[in-house]
Automatic annotation (TrEMBL):
UniProt-annotated stretches for the region Disordered: 74-100
Protein name (record): Zinc-finger domain of monoamine-oxidase A repressor R1
Record's keyword terms, sorted: Metal-binding, Zinc, Zinc-finger
Organism: Artemisia annua (Sweet wormwood)
Domain of life, per lineage: Eukaryota
GO molecular function: zinc ion binding
Length: 100
């Protein structure tokens, strides 16, 4: 089982490119290795992963539509009021028409 000549050519080209890149980095003064750069920086602390909480769905009642149960919706009473801001009342045209 021999190696293919194409693979040898590829490896030779790759090694030549790596050595050229190392020479270029050395000429620029960037000869530090990755391990040296990583030792200079502070490591980023990763937050701990949340533990997956499994819900026992058999104990939770199923949600069903009131429409399908044919239950009438509760009427919205008059007790619910909407708030208007004072700015709305201050700039209302009815107030300025009355002169107040």
């Amino acid at each position: 089982m021999g190696r293919f000549p194409a693979k040898i050519d590829y490896e030779n080209i790759r090694n030549a490119r790596i050595s050229e890149n190392q020479a270029r980095l050395a000429s620029l003064g960037l000869h530090k290795t990755i391990s040296e750069l990583r030792s200079i920086t502070t490591p980023v602390k990763t937050p701990p992963k949340r533990k997956l909480v499994k819900v026992d769905w058999s104990s939770v009642p199923l949600r069903r539509s009131n429409r399908l149960k044919q239950i009438e919706p509760k009427p919205v009473g008059e007790s619910v009021t909407t708030r208007r801001s004072l700015r709305y009342f201050a700039n209302s045209p009815a107030k300025s028409a009355n002169g107040k």
